[in-house]
Amino acid sequence: MSDQKAKSGLLLRRRNKFVGFIIAEAAALGLLLIAGTFALSLKPANPDVAWSINIATIIAAAAVVFIPIIYFAIAPVLPHDNRRGAR
């Protein structure tokens, strides 16, 4: 495999990872904004509904925190380099 193909494959993989991160983070932020808006603006009479909204807000906030860790802190599995001899 030429270096150009290897570099373009790596760049494509990095771009796809970044696009996936942006989509996941945007979805989590959207859910957090919606759940937070409901939690602050609505005063439901049923305590189960209020509890559910609060739990959804906490889960969305946790997702916003953990998505960057999952995407960027975990080391990627790199492909094996076939140019090197067997060890």
Describe what you observe in this structure.
α1 packs antiparallel against α2 (47-73). The protein has helices at residues 3-41, 47-73. It has a domain at 28-74. The protein is mainly alpha-helical and 87 residues long.
Write the layout of secondary structure elements.
Layout: H1 3-41, H2 47-73
Output the keywords.
87 residues, 2 helices, mainly alpha
Instruction: Quickly give the structural class.
Output: mainly alpha
What shape does the CA trace take? elongated
- The pLDDT mean sits at 82
Major beta sheet, specifics?
A: none
Fraction of residues in β-strands:
under 5%
Show unreliable segments: none
In a nutshell, what does this entry contain?
With 87 residues, this protein is mainly alpha-helical. 76% of the residues lie in helices and 0% in strands. The radius of gyration is 21 Å and the shape is elongated.
